[in-house]
Write the structure tokens for this entry.
Amino acid sequence: MPCRLVSGLPVGVLALVAALLFGATLHFGLPIVEQLSRIALNYSSIKPSFFNPKRTEAMTGQPFTVTQPTRIRFGVNTINDLPTMVKDLGGEKVFLVVDPGLAATGLLERIVAPLKTAKVPFELYDKIDPEPGLKLADQGAALAKRAKCDCVVGVGGGSAMDVAKAVSILLTNGGKAEDYLGLGKIKKPGVPKIMVPTTAGTGAEVTFTAVFINEKTKSKGGMNGDPLYPDAALLDPALTVSMPPRVTAMTGIDALIHALEAFVSNQAHPISNMYALEAIDLISHNLGMAYAHGGNLEARSAMLMGSLLAGKALATAGVGLVHAMSYPLGGMFGIPHGLANAVLLPYVVEYNLIGAPDKFAVIAEVMGADVAGMPNRQAAEMAVDMVYQLNQDVGIPATLAELKIPAKKIPEMASIALTVTRPVENNPRKPTLPDVVAIYETAMAGWMHEH
Ligand SMILES: NC(=O)c1ccc[n+]([C@@H]2O[C@H](COP(=O)([O-])OP(=O)(O)OC[C@H]3O[C@@H](n4cnc5c(N)ncnc54)[C@H](O)[C@@H]3O)[C@@H](O)[C@H]2O)c1
Ligand SMILES: [Fe+2]
């Protein structure tokens, strides 16, 4: 299928994406247009007929800030460049935070080998749980200090990367991880940190957030602040092919949600929209193929690029009600982040439609719905069908009941969800407690036979 980028359409947008994304740090060997067109093999043609930028953020005059401090290196086998990246950042001894699941896939050896070859010393920390608790960050920081590490590398999904990010700032700021929950509490830059995502994914390699379960309160919460932006992100699609279908699905839908929620966020701005739309296009047209055949490197590359762009979008525009409502599912019942988000997605999209009908119409169209000639409200409703269909394609359960969430906990879950302040404030429809209870109830039972 012809690619929108090579068919010569928004050259200005492409140039801006390329400049923002790759800056002066691209050494991938091919012209940018060729790289992107290779990644975007199944790219659809966006015809944003419902999207008039003049009616949206560009005209509201809402101030926004875009911070882009993370050097990005993207490409198959770029893991071999890890030692060079460490040295470029002045690192002499690496604290290597690695997802323990990677040992079984052979990836651990793949990651460690270049460091050994280049004689870069490292201390391995691989006791990472999925959905990590704060104590993993504290234990990691103590170990890194004892081992005199001056650089942190996080390899894995969001869980390992978030621990690595927190260790980096704990080494210079002192104290406990709990002290830094919230926004803007971290005062000093961390030691240099490099993130290597192996899921596609959280986008944590380019965000200023690290998310933890607080063991005391059983709630999930983030530390947020500019010192958490990684200094560098190394994205090697070959490291993601070993993801089993279930992990591919959960983490891939999570990435789609980052882009989708950033796009409809009250904090959205023209630059986050650009990232978000590209991410929605890439992810929605490649996730099925990555799920169907894990070894499809083009689809894996597109997914990793999509999750990166989605991370860029969420870093400045934020996420919304799906994420707020998924937090109690993680904190109270240990449901993986991506899975909790994915199950809630169609129900929250339906609830949000009236808050941003033009944007949901664009989302439907970008995801491939045939919306020609439809009024925008009708086109917007297609977004519900599109996300539900994608969930079905990749085996996401249709209801919370299938996750064995007890219905009697809904009032407590709803109260907790509304305390996840920033995503709630970003959401295009302001949710009340009865609204959130009603969404959970619908998600518990499901309505999809109506769609
Ligand atoms: N910091 C941020 O900006 C941000 C954004 C979104 C989510 N998060 C957080 O990230 C965490 C979730 O991260 P995740 O969804 O990436 O999952 P994860 O890191 O918990 O990993 C999920 C599972 O996938 C396995 N895995 C990872 N890569 C693999 C590979 N290449 N091959 C085989 N198995 C592999 C892991 O062993 C693990 O069992 C949550 O705690 C969530 O709150 C952080
Ligand atoms: Fe997420």
